[in-house]
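Supplementary Methods, section 5.1.

A reviewer requested that the exact input to the structure prediction be made available. We therefore reproduce it here, unchanged from the version used in the analyses.
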Amino acid sequence: MADWSLPREDLSRREREGFRPPPHERARSPAARIRAPLRRFADLQFGSIWRDLAALLPRVQGTLADVGCGAQPFRDLIQPGVRYIAVDIAEAETQFGYRADDTRYFQGNVLPLQDREADAVLCTETLEHVLEPEPFLRELARVLADHGRLILTVPFAARWHFVPHDYWRYTPSGLKHLLARAGFRDVLIYARGGALAVAGYKVLGYVLLLLAGHGRRGFVTAPWRLLGVCLLPVAVLAALLGNLGLMYPGTAEDTLGYTVLAHKASAP
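The structure derived from this sequence is encoded token-by-token as follows.
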């Protein structure tokens, strides 16, 4: 039998990425409140999501279900009178490193929420980790009240992360199709940054990879780390330009990700 292999790594066998950024956190302590804006400045993906949700979440009323909540980093954007329900999979800790005591953890395909229990559903950077997206989106529609609002974010230019539990990258065309099939209407899709933000994100990601040893172990990491230290001024410039690219995105064909708004369709 002919050997069809190529002289490089077979990524279908990869179980973990070479570098994994630290988990997000909720800004509760004074130290965390200092780290939060720095994280948003340097982590362009997270910062772009925060910019959009800071404009959207204060408008939410009633009950909000945060599905795929992780460390609940956006909870403090919600008004005090809103009933907040955190929801995540039982494997969130082992697969993604997140665990919070006030979260409803579940196994299987059915969310631990009643029909029409939520007036709004927040689902940030979760859909790419769902192997079967359409049944999951139907579950989001099920737990929404009639005419309830879905707030969804997905990455586009993001690196392969939480390997191997990262399955998809979505385009606006694909998102609109999936949401319509799942029972949503009035779908609005917004890009988060343009080519400049993406370029800044890629440069930052490479410098962080170098600082982590370029995915290597032992003494061989030293030259890579040294190179990363030498490139720190480049990383700061990339962060500045990337944030500029969030404010002035230009065209939307190349973007960090998408923020999606949709209403639950009325029952026939």
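The mean pLDDT is 93. These observations are discussed further in the main text.
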